[in-house]
Design a protein that fits this description.
It contains seven helices and two strands, in the order E-H-E-H-H-H-H-H-H. By secondary structure, the protein is mainly alpha-helical. Strands 1-2 form a two-stranded antiparallel ribbon. One of its GO terms (molecular function) is iron ion binding.
């Protein structure tokens, strides 16, 4: 049976969310790479704003980030999609699946920190935005340190 889930792609910024059918771990690897590339793009833009805060620009970027916080990482990381099984441009450590509850807890922390960043965006407090961005980035780093191979 094919699983369906939503991934926001750069082109979907205008078109809305795109539904992808994922039938195999290989397709999940491709979908998560697309997702995390988009997330990385948004993180870069937010990082620039954390250094030179512009409330209007922050609000715009937060609106682009918010849909990414609704994705379900279980769909991106099915069993059989680690670098041990699929080595083609894949950095997901097998530890994800042996510590899946911790991995999902890190996803929850990521989403909570992302929601706080979205809430801080557009406000007049540049320090609050920068702090929220730092916490959000820290959740990314915590997961990368434990569950992603370096480039």
């Amino acid at each position: 049976m094919r699983k369906l889930f939503t991934v926001t792609l750069p082109a979907a910024m205008v078109l809305g969310a795109v539904t992808l059918a994922v039938a195999s771990p290989m397709e999940a690897v491709g979908a998560r790479q697309t997702y995390f590339k988009k997330l990385g793009y948004e993180m870069k833009k937010m990082g620039e704003l954390a250094k030179a805060y512009d409330p209007a620009a922050a609000k715009t970027e937060a609106e682009a980030l918010a849909p990414l916080l609704t994705s379900d990482f279980k769909e991106f990381f099915p069993e059989g999609s680690s670098v041990a099984e699929i080595s083609d441009d894949n950095r997901a450590k097998p530890a994800i699946w042996s510590n899946f509850d911790d991995f999902l807890a890190k996803e929850t922390a990521f989403k909570d920190a992302g929601a706080a960043l979205v809430a801080a965006a557009g406000g007049e407090d540049a320090g609050a935005f920068a702090a929220a961005f730092g916490k959000f980035g820290g959740t990314c780093k915590a997961c990368h340190d434990e569950y992603r191979l370096p480039e």
